[in-house]
Structure formats: C-alpha cells, structure tokens
Design goal:
single chain, 424 residues, alpha+beta, six-stranded mixed sheet, 11 helices, 20 strands, disordered N terminus, binds zinc ion
Length: 424
C-alpha cells in the first residue's frame, strides 16, 4: 500500500454492445454517507409505536453524532486496509465533522447529524470491501466486518447508511420509499437511483461491532497493581499511616462484568467490590440507551462493552480517597451523543459517598454560573476536587476529557462528571 491516493485513469463506457474486456475499465470510487440516529423525542415513528410511553426511549438528550470516530475500509477477502491510504502502524481514518440534516428533510423522523466520508479509490484487484468502525477499527480489535459488499463496476458508488433503533427499522423503511427493510448488516441498491446503495446501522448491529472485554482484554488493559493511600486516622511516629491494596483487576472487576446476565431490566442495581470496600451503584435506566435501541442487548452485554480502564480508574481514585460508593449513570451506549460512550471509553458519574467522613456529594452544579469555575468549597466540594485530581493524573485516563459541572465543563455536563479513558 502506497501513501498516495490512486490516480483515476479516466472512465471508459462499457456498453452492452462493446467488446468484453478482461480488465476493469475504470477506477472505482465509493463514498459513504452516514445519517446518525435522531432523538426519540419528536420522532413520529417512535410515537407511532409507543404513543406517549417514554419508557422505551433510549436516545434522550443529545442526538447521536460520530465526529472523530475511528474507521478503516478494508478488502473484505484479505482484510488489507484500503483506506486510509497510509495505514502503516495501524493508523485509522476519523469521521469528519458533522452537518445537520433538518427534521423536515426527507427522512421524516427528526433532525439527524450527517457525516460524509471522502470518496475512496478502490484498487482494481479488490472485489469486496467492508468497514470497521469505532473500537473495532483498531488493528488489534478488528473483528466485525460491517456491511461486507461487492463493489459495483461503476465510476462512483454512493452508500447511504441510516443509523436507527432496531425496533423502528420496519417503520422507517415503510415511510421512506423506495427504501425497504433489509437483512441485518447488508447493503442494497436504491430503486430508481443510479449507483446508490443503502443499509441500516441499528442497535443490534452496534452490539456486534463493539468489542466485548473478556478476561484476556481486562488483564492486558488493566494488569495487577498495588495501590497505596494515606489512612484516615492514626499516625506512627508522627507520620501518617500508609495503607496498601494489591489489586488483580481481572478478579476485582468480575462482579461488574458478571452483573445483569440475560436481563434487560432498567431498574437500578448495585455491585459490591469487596476487595476495595466500594459499592458501584448503577442508576435507574443507566443502560437504557443500549437496551432500547436494540431488540436483544442485555445489561451484561452493555457492561462488557465498557472498557475495564473506566471502572478501574474510577475505583482506584475512589479507594485512594476513602470513597465507599460511586454512582454511575451511563457506560457503553450506542446512538447517543458523541463517540466516546459508543467506543466504550466513557463513564458518567453522578454521585459519591464517603461514609466514614460523612460526605455525600451529588455531582451537579447550581447553574450556568458554576460552569468552568472552581469546585465548591467545603469538605464535600474539596473531595470532588481531589477526585478530579486523581482521575486526571491517572495515565490510563484522557485527562483533558474528564468533564465536570465545574472545572473543564462542556455541554451537557451540568449533572454528572464524564470520565474518558484511553482507547484500545
Ligand atoms: Zn459521558
């Protein structure tokens, strides 16, 4: 693979009455356009199915977009990377910036963010191509072929991908002729259009795309380590007492990854991490977005798509600060907001408690005037400041992407702290 784009060699018409040629007579280009899922609120297809019942909503506050999402296009038969053209050392391409498609545009289901990927030159020897996106785009994870497809003999083929809830796919197709419902993970020609194809990226497919963190991955990403902290009480010869915990993350995180097997319940639940004396409390509907956008995703499957680095970083910081409860409102989730939770590298924290020091803190500012200002004063606010400090100093955390309702605020972080860990 060279680092320079293949230069088109011009287009020859291959009409039916012309002599058959054994070589491709044109350089083929393929462009993908991805239409991200709209919000359920205001989506008439949702209300047609569920009326005013909001309990099935998955996508609630910030519509899906994919800016910066890693992807590669590969030869589906050899797995060689076709795009980016220079893919040495596992380099991936990234989704370009989003553009708004207004709700009154042709798709009838709400405002969608749209990403147009650049036209990609398909080498002559390639028959079938496929995409790898999100965490599955990384060379070491590449496992799920998204939309494997035989490239047509056309100069420029356009592929439109519609992201939508699995349970609304029938309705979407019915409302948008000439689109039709399609088998999962397939592309089809758009009737009546030249060189246009389409497919559906639904929640069931997101489940398949997103890598599950098994024991091997946990050990690789979070090797065993020894944690230290200062004891809350007591001194030895005038020095504070240092405490240690030897932590095998594979074992410590097991109760989290074992929770919710075969369950699609939205009810809150607690996971006790005995080794660290910490309870992880999953809020009501914490996994709603994963479950409601898919016909089959379970609580456990959603948790297992959340990087162990997220839980390990939070637990480590909490233990060092004597926090005994952390409440989480979102982990891996497709089809909502930015790409971080879709990649399983984001975790939202809404509350923490330190029972010994009687500190109970809701991570929630009092209004816009708190944004990008110092953490609250007092013991609880200062514990919050210390928690932020611990997390941003952790090498497994993307320090600049820890967002709070105070320091490092960005929309929409008034009611929680968002922790981002390194991808991989
Ligand atoms: Zn978040």
């Amino acid at each position: 693979m060279t680092g320079t784009p293949q230069t088109p060699i011009g287009i020859m018409t291959c009409g039916q009455n012309q002599p058959t040629q054994d070589v491709n007579c044109m350089t083929r280009k393929v462009s993908f356009v991805v239409y991200c899922a709209p919000l359920d609120q205001g989506n008439s297809m949702y209300s047609d199915v569920y009326g005013n019942d909001t309990s099935h909503r998955g996508v609630t506050d910030s519509a899906s977009y994919l800016t910066g999402l890693p992807y590669v296009v590969v030869n589906a038969d050899t797995n060689d990377v076709i795009y980016p053209y220079n893919s040495a050392n596992g380099v991936t391409a990234r989704f370009p910036a989003k553009v708004a498609l207004p709700g009154n545009a042709s798709l009838h289901d709400g405002t969608r963010w749209v990403h147009s990927l650049p036209p990609i030159n398909i080498p002559d020897h390639v028959t079938r191509i496929t995409l790898h996106i999100a965490s599955d785009a990384y060379r070491e994870n590449r496992r799920f072929q998204l939309f494997p497809w035989t490239v047509p003999d056309a100069a420029h083929s356009k592929v439109r991908i519609y992201e939508l809830r699995s349970d609304l796919q029938d309705k979407f197709a019915a409302r948008n002729p000439p689109l039709a419902n399609l088998p999962e993970n397939t592309l089809a020609a758009k009737q009546g259009a030249d060189n246009e194809y389409y497919g559906y990226l639904n929640g069931d497919l997101w489940l398949k795309i997103s890598p599950e963190y098994d024991d091997g991955a946990i050990t690789r990403l979070c090797p065993p380590e020894t944690l230290t902290r200062t004891a809350l009480h007591g001194q030895v010869e005038g020095e504070p007492i240092s405490e240690q915990a030897i932590v095998d993350w594979m074992a410590v995180l097991q109760p989290i990854y074992a929770a919710g097997a075969n369950s699609r319940s939205m009810a809150p639940f607690n996971v006790r991490i005995v080794e660290l004396g910490i309870t992880v409390s999953f809020a009501d509907r914490a996994l709603a977005n994963a479950i409601n956008t898919s016909n089959r995703t379970t609580v456990q499957q959603a948790l297992r798509r959340t990087s162990p680095r997220t839980f390990a970083a939070l637990l480590k910081a909490a233990w060092r600060l004597h926090i005994d409860t952390v409440a989480v409102s979102s982990s891996w989730r497709p089809m909502l907001g930015s790409s971080l939770h879709k990649m399983g590298i984001g975790l939202d924290v809404v509350r923490f408690d330190d029972g010994q020091e009687n500190i109970h803190f809701l991570i929630h500012n009092h209004g816009p005037y708190d944004r990008n200002h110092a953490f609250p004063t007092g013991p609880a606010g200062q514990k919050m400041a210390a928690l932020y400090q611990e997390l941003t100093a952790d090498h497994e955390v993307s320090g600049s992407a820890v967002y709070t309702p105070w320091i490092n605020w960005i929309q929409p972080h008034d009611t929680h702290m968002h922790v981002t860990v390194k991808a991989g």
